[in-house]
Write a structure and sequence with these properties.
There is one protein chain. The protein has 451 residues and is of the alpha+beta class. The chain folds into 3 domains: 98 residues, no CATH class; 133 residues, Beta-Lactamase, CATH 3.30.450.40; 174 residues, Orthogonal Bundle (Hypothetical protein af1432), CATH 1.10.3210.10. Helix content is 60%, strand content 7%. The chain has 16 helices and 4 strands. A 4-stranded antiparallel beta sheet has the order 2-1-4-3, sandwiched between helices. About 1% of the residues have low confidence. It holds the Pfam family HD_5.
């Protein structure tokens, strides 16, 4: 609503003066006209000012009746009552329209801002918190809670108002009957029972569903006023519940897809090592160690994930290497070495159609045999030109290969392998990553001694 100007107040003062003049001089027509103008001018002021017209007309009419010689017949009284009633009805109707318009504007603004927050959320908890913020902005109720199931137990995962005291609290049956903990009405009853009666004089419960009618949780709203939730509020809450359910359902689907990808890649890595590693466990060892070193270096989670997936797949290309070369007991001749060096490019090419794999994963598969001094393969990259994931992983991969038996060599001792890694800093490996790796291994040794 725009701010009234000074001219509006001056015009209102003139109209009020006209009402007073008409009342004191007994001019009924002028009194009615001036009162109507007061109503027109006072409407933009909002609030109680909108009742100014019927009030000043009633006062002016009564004042006019008290003047000496004034007389009002039945028709005059009926006319006055009709005018006062008409002004009052218009005021009530317009106030209702203004409240409805304000509600619609507030709803649109809240849903617009909330949808942006929902889109930015990166996990289920963030989505739920953003959802509760939307409801809070809608101001449909002071107390609200989102209840969902964690390992089969209902819990309040987000809340406003009096429900905030029960965040992350499991909801258990208050008696010993055998009702299902998945029943919305039961959960709602138990959650409402947490509130004092004055805080839940009126309440509303809305179920939240995701894709394929998957039940995701329950929204519970309460208010202390003895005012029912009206149809517009219930409609908005239902629309919001659908929006929240769609966002949570989408996130759940993405998480399930990511979990499936992770499991598939891990299983593929485990199957691959059976062909190249008689003892098994190489993939799991290098995955854990490289991930631990990456976290020590402060890598972002997305980069750590790319490194982990690359660890699963780093030797995929060995599927195309003949057994006579792969399992040869003894040194490889130049041609056999050329053949086995092709596994990095073969693996890289085999993964091109898996579009969900990040570039850092593909970089690791292709370049994990490059050397810091530029004498590695397949591209002879040097120093910082070697991708980060490949530079880190090659240290872990070589250390594991040294400390475990291969067809062509026995296992080295831990100290001998660590000394070799140290000696190759600046030659085969990134010196900074070697320092971080050696500190990590030393701390691991200290932890073993303490335990």
């Amino acid at each position: 609503m725009s701010r009234p100007s000074v001219w509006s107040f001056l015009l209102l003062a003139l109209c009020l003066g006209a009402v007073g003049f008409a009342a004191l001089t007994g001019q009924a027509v002028l009194l009615a006209g001036a009162a109507l103008l007061v109503g027109v001018i006072s409407w933009p002021l909002g609030g109680a000012a909108r009742w100014l017209a019927p009030i000043v007309y009633a006062i002016g009419f009564v004042v006019a009746l008290t003047l000496p010689g004034a007389a009002a017949g039945p028709l005059d009284l009926v006319g006055a009552l009709l005018l006062i009633g008409g002004l009052g009805f218009i005021t009530l109707r317009d106030q209702g329209s203004a409240r409805e318009l304000a509600w619609q504007r507030n709803t649109i603004a809240a849903l617009r801002a909330g949808s942006e927050r929902l889109a930015e959320a990166r996990d289920a908890d963030a989505i739920i918190r953003a959802g509760i913020n939307i409801l809070d902005r809608l101001q449909v109720a002071p107390n609200m809670a989102f209840v969902a199931y964690r390992q089969g137990t209902p819990m309040i995962l987000a809340a406003r108002g009096a429900f905030e005291a029960y965040l992350e609290r499991p909801i258990h049956p208050s008696d010993s009957d055998s009702r299902s903990v998945q029943a919305d009405h039961w959960v709602a009853e138990e959650v409402l029972a947490l509130m004092k009666k004055p805080q839940r004089r009126k309440y509303h419960v809305a179920a939240v569903y995701g894709r394929a009618t998957t039940h995701l949780g329950v929204l519970i709203l309460t208010r202390s006023e003895d005012v029912d939730f009206d149809e517009d509020e219930i409609t908005v809450i239902a629309s919001f519940a659908r929006l929240l359910g769609a966002q949570l359902g989408q996130w759940t689907a993405i998480r399930e897809l990511r979990d499936a990808n992770e499991l598939t890649l891990r299983s593929l890595g485990a199957a691959l090592e059976r062909r190249d590693d008689d003892t098994g466990g190489h993939t799991l060892r290098v995955e854990r160690s490289s991930e631990r070193l990456a976290r020590r270096l402060g890598w972002a989670e997305e980069q750590v994930k790319a490194l982990r997936w690359g660890a699963y797949l780093h030797d995929l290309g060995k599927l195309a290497i003949p057994d006579a070369v792969l399992h040869k007991r003894g040194p490889l001749d130049p041609e056999e070495r050329r053949v086995i060096q092709q596994h990095t490019i073969i693996g890289y090419d085999m993964l091109q159609d898996l579009h969900f794999l990040p570039a850092e994963t593909l970089d690791l598969v292709r370049y994990h045999h490059e050397r810091w001094d530029g004498t590695g393969y397949p591209s002879g990259l040097r120093g910082q030109n070697i991708p980060d994931t490949a530079r880190l992983f090659t240290i872990i991969d070589v250390y594991d290969a040294l400390t475990n038996a291969r067809p062509y060599k026995p296992a080295w001792t831990r100290d001998r392998a660590l000394n070799e890694i140290r000696m190759q800093a600046g030659r085969q490996f990134d010196p900074q990553y070697v320092d971080a790796f050696l500190r990590m291994m030393a701390e691991q040794d200290d932890a073993h001694l303490v335990s």
